Structures are given as structure tokens and as C-alpha cells.
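Need residues for this backbone.
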């Protein structure tokens, strides 16, 4: 087993910085790839939801409200394209976007299964469709990052020897799941039931909050924990030092200007920390928009404040997960 003190980046001066991204896995012209991605993802989602409509998603009919306003339909489609755009121009690969989709789509479906008597099979079918409809088009148009390969070449990523360590995968996945479990369970036991009663008209059952136990809630987030370590921890652990790290290593407080000092204090982090901060911020923003928009637009009787509050709870959980994983990875002295 690799100890925690082994999980850090090497000295910036000692490591060259090769490109992490391989050439796109597509022969389509560059300008056409993103429109093709959006089109194929939406078509795939529509086809798969049609195919599985008889396998467990029919119970959504009693919960979902009709979208008669043009802006509601435009908002849902526009946000779908925005999600894909964040992944495309953020240089994510299929695994990245699949993990992000899993984490950001879970809150909406979790609400339905916990408080609207929607079957758990609907949750997993819906998540599977959402994940596959993003992962498959991305995989066709872009190669996987070395971060997510089972055997990355030496020099492509940092901490190559421990990136695929099974113990680290298991421990960080359980840790992320435990953080989600604590935040959600704590909300169940404090403010959430009353908040739901006030702002969510048409709730079917609140026993999911009152009868919840922390171990059971945590186990329910094991898949989310694995997605969190894949999207947040793994890319941060494998991030190689870059030119920014070299500049920060040369920072001298005695000779630096005021602007340089301010910038150093705000963004003078290592590539590993900056990667984790950026991805945690992305996860929080996408989770808030996806959860808030989908909850308000698709579920009958949900007030805007209710949708915002439900989304904020998951944003807090994602922030705490990112913070804890940053603490785990914030160590010194490993070699590639």
C-alpha cells in the first residue's frame, strides 16, 4: 500500500511538461466536432429514454409537469449544450464527463426516489442513460486522457506508480462517499424536512429523511464516491508541474511588486491544487445549475426557492468533498 506521504508532485524544476491530451479521436473537421457532439448526445439520450420507458421510468409521469412554455424547453436543451461545452472546451475526456454527469445528475434523481416514491430502478436507469449519452459521443470524438488509462506512459502523468493503486482508489472513493453521506444525513436530521414541506408541494413521503441511518446513506453514495475520486482526485494526483509552478517557486517576497504578491497569495498553488480547485468549482456550478433547473422545470409543485435550496445542499457537499480530497493529496515528496 502506498502511504499518504507518497502522494505528492515532484519538484517543478525536475520534470518536463509533456502534453496531457492526445490528438482528437475523430476525422471530422475541428469546427464540426462540437456540433456533432451535441447532436449525437441529444439523439442518443432521446433514443435510450424511449427504449427504457417501459423498464422503470413510467412512474415519472405522476411527478413530472408538462413543459408548455417555450423557454422551459429551451432552457433544458440550452443547459444540456452548455454542459457538453464545458466538457469539450475544458478538455475533459469521456471518463471525466461521465463522472461529472453522474455527480451532477444524481441530486435530481435522488430527490425523486427519496421523497416522491419513484422506484430506485428509475434512478439507475436514468443515470445510466445520462452517463452513456455523454460518454459515448465524447469517446468517439476524443481519445481518453493519460490520467484515465490503466498504463500511462512514463512522463505523461505525475505519480504514475500510484495512480492506479487499488487501495487508494478504494479509500478515496469511500472517503468521498462518506462526506456526501454526512452532509445529506445531517440535512435530513436538521433543516431539510421542514424546508421540503414548505417549498415542495406534492411530496409523497418524508420517511426517507426521518428513517435514514448514516451507514445506509453513505453506502448509497459509493458510486458517487467513485465518480468523485475519478473526476476530482485522480486528475489532481496525476497533474504534472507546469510553468506556473516554476514561476511560483521563484517568487521572492522581498523583491516582488504588490501585484505579484497579491497574485501569489490568490493563485500561487501547485498544479495539483489548481486542478482540484478548478474541477471542484466546475462540479459545484454544474451541480447547482443542473439540479436547480431540472428540479424547478420538471417537478410539479416545486418553488424556485425550494429548487435553489435543494441544489445548494449538494453544492455544499461537493465543496466539502473537494476540500477533503485536497487535504488527502496535499503532501510532499513523491517520485513518478
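Answer:
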Amino acid at each position: 500500500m502506498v502511504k499518504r506521504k507518497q502522494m505528492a508532485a515532484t519538484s517543478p524544476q525536475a520534470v518536463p511538461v509533456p502534453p496531457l491530451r492526445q490528438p482528437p479521436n475523430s476525422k471530422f473537421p475541428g469546427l464540426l466536432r462540437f456540433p456533432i457532439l451535441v447532436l449525437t448526445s441529444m439523439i442518443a439520450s432521446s433514443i435510450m429514454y424511449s427504449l427504457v420507458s417501459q423498464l422503470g421510468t413510467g412512474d415519472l409521469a405522476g411527478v413530472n409537469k408538462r413543459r408548455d412554455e417555450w423557454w422551459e424547453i429551451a432552457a433544458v436543451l440550452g443547459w444540456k449544450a452548455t454542459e457538453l461545452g464545458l466538457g469539450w472546451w475544458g478538455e475533459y475526456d469521456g471518463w471525466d464527463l461521465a463522472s461529472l454527469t453522474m455527480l451532477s445528475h444524481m441530486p435530481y434523481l435522488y430527490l425523486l426516489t427519496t421523497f416522491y416514491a419513484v422506484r430506485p430502478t428509475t434512478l439507475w436507469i436514468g443515470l445510466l442513460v445520462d452517463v452513456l449519452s455523454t460518454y459515448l459521443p465524447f469517446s468517439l470524438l476524443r481519445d481518453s486522457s493519460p490520467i484515465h488509462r490503466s498504463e500511462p506512459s512514463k512522463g505523461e502523468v505525475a505519480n504514475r506508480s500510484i495512480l492506479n493503486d487499488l487501495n487508494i482508489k478504494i479509500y478515496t472513493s469511500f472517503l468521498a462517499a462518506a462526506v456526501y453521506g454526512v452532509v445529506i444525513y445531517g440535512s435530513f436530521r436538521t433543516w431539510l424536512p421542514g424546508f421540503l414541506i414548505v417549498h415542495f408541494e406534492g411530496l409523497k413521503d418524508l420517511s426517507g429523511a426521518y428513517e435514514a441511518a448514516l451507514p445506509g446513506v453513505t453506502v448509497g453514495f459509493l458510486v458517487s464516491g467513485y465518480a468523485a475520486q475519478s473526476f476530482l482526485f485522480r486528475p489532481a494526483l496525476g497533474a504534472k508541474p507546469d510553468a506556473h509552478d516554476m514561476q511560483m517557486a521563484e517568487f521572492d517576497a522581498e523583491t516582488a511588486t504588490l501585484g505579484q504578491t497579491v497574485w501569489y497569495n490568490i493563485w500561487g498553488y501547485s498544479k495539483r491544487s489548481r486542478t482540484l480547485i478548478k474541477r471542484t468549482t466546475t462540479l459545484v456550478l454544474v451541480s447547482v445549475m443542473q439540479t436547480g433547473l431540472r428540479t424547478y422545470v420538471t417537478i410539479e409543485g416545486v418553488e424556485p426557492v425550494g429548487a435553489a435550496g435543494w441544489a445548494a445542499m449538494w453544492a455544499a457537499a461537493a465543496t466539502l468533498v473537494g476540500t477533503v480530497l485536497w487535504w488527502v493529496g496535499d503532501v510532499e515528496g513523491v517520485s513518478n
